[in-house]
Amino acid sequence: MKSTVTLLFIVVLMTGCATTPTGDIGAFGDATKDITDKIDAVIKDYNEANIQNEINKLAQHTSSISIDKFDPIRDAIIHEADKKNYAIYKANNALGLYAKSLTALANAGNRDEIDLAAAKLYGSLHGLNEQYKVLKNTTSNLLDDNTSALIGKAIAEIGSVYIENQRAKAIKSIVVAADKHIQTICDVIVNELLKGVIEERLFTIRHIEVSGYLDDYNKMVATATFIDKQKALGEIYKKYVVMQSSSASVVQAINAIEAIKKAHATIKKDVEEDKFTSKGAVEAIGNLKDINDHYNNLEEMMLSCKTQIIADPKKGVVCEDKKN
User: Fold this and answer.
1) What are phi and psi of 317, to 5 degrees?
2) What is the C-alpha to C-alpha distance for residues 47 and 53, in angstroms, rounded to an integer?
3) Do 189 and 89 contact (CB within 8 A), yes or no?
4) Which residues pair with 310 in a beta bridge?
5) How far is it, in rounded angstroms, from Cα 21 to Cα 61?
6) Number of domains, the chain
């Protein structure tokens, strides 16, 4: 009897897995996580560039230094403005974890995988909530009590079901309840990026770095061989292009976040109608993948510019129609 019940359970489980109705959820999660990883790299680069800038200043000293000379690096880490930029990094990271967790929930094959994905999803929403408060300088929560209760209930239900159509209903509840707040956190991240602080600061720091390499080059240019000069200029040029691309990486970060926002809204509309795949969702996810493929590409930004490319002395190469 026991073996019969066990066999019946396996059949039910296999039947559920054979008709997974969560197709676009997984694709959205994968595409979003890929993009947020790229955005993470841009913001992390900015945060690390602030520290590197202080190290560059120290490197210009011709006399010995003491440990207190590292205090500006400490200040760069704890400065209020930089706290916000770390909050953007953390919020974007939490957005990626949310997307990845949705994929994991859609594709989980056993109870342990479901529990782990559900726990990470809950953690990602908590992370979004906390970084929202930092970025908005508020004590108000991103997720209200009603939303938290709805998502909490859906997560609890997801942990107790194996049959796919039941899991899909729980995922539907999560996506619908979370959408308004995903839209909000995306807007908050975009608004912070649109302030231009990151791209201007990145350009300035990279400009200082390139200038330092040029100073060294100029000191050796009279005595260096042609091969040595060619090699040195090649390395400096690579850094020069990165400097000029500072704006492009932030522009594409903004485009990516807006694409995530649109894709989530499309999927939310679909699942409300109990559709887990649609032409609109496929197009929105395809757009995410296209942005990912061309991310952090100066040439791509230039080709997509609808007006004219200019050299901004504070931001590097920019498109005039970029939002300010």
Assistant:
1) -75, 125
2) 10
3) no
4) 318
5) 63
6) 1
Q: How far apart are CA 177 and CA 228, in angstroms?
A: 61
pLDDT tens sequence across 110-140: 778 888 888 888 889 889 999 899 888 899 9
* The one-letter amino acid at 231: K
Establish if 53 belongs to a structural domain.
yes
Domain that residue 220 falls in: 21-319
Helix or strand or coil: residue 309? strand
The DSSP output letter for 276 is: S
Strand segments (E) across the chain? 309-312, 316-319
DSSP, collapsed to helix, strand or coil, labels residue 312 as strand
- In angstroms, the CA 83 to CA 43 distance is 12
Q: How far is CA 111 from the centre of its chain?
A: 29
**Nearest alpha carbon to residue 185 among 130, 105, 104, 248:** 130
User: How many CB atoms are located within 10 Å of the residue 311 CB?
Assistant: 9
Percent of the chain scored above 70 by pLDDT? 84
pLDDT of residue 79: 60
Measured CA to CA in angstroms, residue 226 lies from 216, 221, 231, 238, 239 at distances of: 16, 9, 9, 18, 20
- Angstrom distances, CA of residue 292 to CA of 66, 189, 233, 260, 289: 44, 18, 31, 11, 5
Residue 14 inside a domain? The answer is no
For residue 266, the tally of other CB atoms under 10 A from its CB is 20
Considering the domain boundaries, does residue 1 fall inside one? no
- Rounded distance, CA 105 to CA 120, Å? 10
Flag whether 5 is in a domain.
no
Measured CA distances, 216 to 26, 155, 209, 213, 321 (Å): 51, 58, 11, 5, 37
Instruction: Provide the token pair at 77.
Output: 């880490």
- Whether the CA torsion 191, 264, 272, 118 is positive or negative: it is negative
pLDDT of residue 12: 31
pLDDT in tens, 276-320: 777 887 888 888 888 777 666 676 677 677 787 888 888 888 877
